[in-house]
Specification:
The chain has 294 residues and is of the alpha/beta class. It has ten helices and 13 strands. It binds iron/sulfur cluster.
Amino acid sequence: MIIQIAKHSGFCYGVKRAIQILDDLIEANKGEKRIFTLGPIIHNNQVTEYYEEKGIKAIEKLANFMDNRMDGDRLVIRSHGAPKSVYDLAEAQGFEIHDATCPYVKKIQNTVSSYYLKGYNIIIVGDQNHPEVLGINGWCDESATIVNTLHDVEDMHPSDELFCIVAQTTFKLSLWEQMSTLFSEKLSNAVIQNTICLATEQRQKACIELSKTVEFMIVIGGKHSSNTRKLAEICSRNATTIHIETKDDLVDVSMFKSNTKIGIAAGASTPDWIVESVILKIENEGEVFFDGKS
Ligand code: SF4
């Protein structure tokens, strides 16, 4: 087997930064105060379990937590960000807030907030249930129209009203390009900002390139991770693709023959140690020519 790892695999800048902020806080806290994250710090079950073992709990809904509050509780806002109302509520309840919102997401929130205050209608291109999109929508009083497909844009009526259009940072680039062309045809006064993160673009492009040159792609990352799922979908167009969370999901390694070319890609929230353990498992099952990064 020949294994190649896609360029730009693994933790992105925003995830590394969020993990660092949490680790620094744990270190400085020395177990004195309780530390919570707003939702799992990143979309990766193994990382969440690691922090749970250190006593860090994820709060899903802040409003439901208020009866359990204690003085000095710390709250870490994860890289996806949060709506303005969450900051207001956390502050009012006396949480010490540690904001690990990725600066790229923060920039979108600021853009949306400033255009909304100038009277623009906000459109967010992305998944209406994703925490990042929910967070961005929370900076324009939850007034945004959220669209996710070309069909959604085709259904829109032409308008000369003011619009500001942004994208979820992990949205698929090729679909965004098609959608923005349609937006500019239908909306004569639209500010269209491509806010897809460079990390996402790089990972998607690397996956397209690598998946064209191999027979199998193994995409590693959380089943709930939006960016990992998109990488798997992109790879599946060119190669037989499996999406796994850990080495334990890789049940039948025997399907890889001695001359099989395997590509490996990891989502932006997948730690290196999980990638390494998958490679080790494949190595232990047969002859492998490790070819490094593609
Ligand atoms: S994918 Fe981009 S926007 Fe999202 S956390 Fe990573 S660096 Fe930030």
